[in-house]
Write a structure and sequence with these properties.
single chain; 14 helices; coiled coil
Amino acid sequence: METVKPLDVASGKGKLRRAFVKVINVKKLTGVVPEGDKDLVKNAANLSESFDKLEEEYEKRLAMEALLAKLFATVSSIKSGYAQLQYAQSPYDPAGIQRADGLVVSELKTLSEMKQSFLKKEFDSNPDRTLVVAEIQELRSLLKTYEITGKKMECQLKLKDSEILFLKEKLQELMSQNKLMEKRLNQSVTLDHNSQTHFVTYLHHTVKSIRGFVKTMVQQMRFSGWDVDTAADAIQPGVLYHKRDHACFAFEHFVCKVMFEAFHLPYFSTESSSSKSRDMFFERFTELRSVKAREYIASRPKSRFSRFCRGKYLQLVHPKMEVAFFGHSHVRNQVSAGEFPDTSFCAAFLEMAKRVWLLHCLAFSLEPEASIFGVSEGCRFSEVYMKSVSEECLSESEPRVAFTVVPGFRIGKTSIQCEVYLSPSKSTPDSG
């Protein structure tokens, strides 16, 4: 507590005392008051009265300061008692609650007594001692409050540690379940690689990885200062989007177009020597599915999969785009040399490329083989062969296909719908 500075009257009192002593001593020795001190003698009564008033004012000022100090100390004690009361409630401590309640009641009584003393003008007879005691009391109350606050923070820290431990255990449990499900899926695929259900499941994972890469690419474009809407219009000119963020489907269309190009050819290649054995393709699928793409490429840089990744990357990522993203073309040079750097962008690309490659191997391992198809711009929408990527587009009467986002597949007489973006007939792009 910062106390109020008392009125400095000590020097004035000292001067008055010295003056009175001087006059009295001279008068005792000579019986005559000196000429120079006659005025002092004449005004002695007035000076004495002023001195008494100053001393009275000083004492009142000191008493008021002591009262304020005691008031603040009592308020601090009440705050400390209230903090102790809250702390004793959780966990429930009856004895602690009783002690804290008694402290608060006692200090409230002290406040009431101080109020009555102030109204009756009954000031402290020993203010100097009260100032010291009040300061000690306030410091003790603050210390107790800080101690309780520290205990509360320790409890909160332990609670957070428990939550973290629980979440870690939950994450470990979910990861174990995920591995178990993946193992069961792999086992079921191994037992029956002709199943169309597994192809549909793996297609879903492939599309998910493509959308993950597209999201990363669009984020890089925005970070590099590219106009995303203009870039989307360059891919699909003149398309009216129901919402502005639907422009991302144009990039998804572009990525799918590049990645699925030559999907109908064995190993995405026209090599006549390529084997078309179903078992061979399934072996390739089994070999690569549990291996990280970067590690596989590093260990087998001349493999078909490595050549596939290099070719698709160089075809998908334009040199100007790469310079805009990274400020240089080093990544392109590394990829051309058969090495993919350890970046988030390349990691997203390799995950997508691996999924597309495995889907391709799975397609050629089926009997009959899975074939790919798309639909032309302007085609009338058909629920048999198509699925809209946006529900808003279906509200149009007789919607037409603006472009194919994800291609569809046929396995014998079964068709897996392609995903398309439908053009609004009369609407304009939504600003939302």
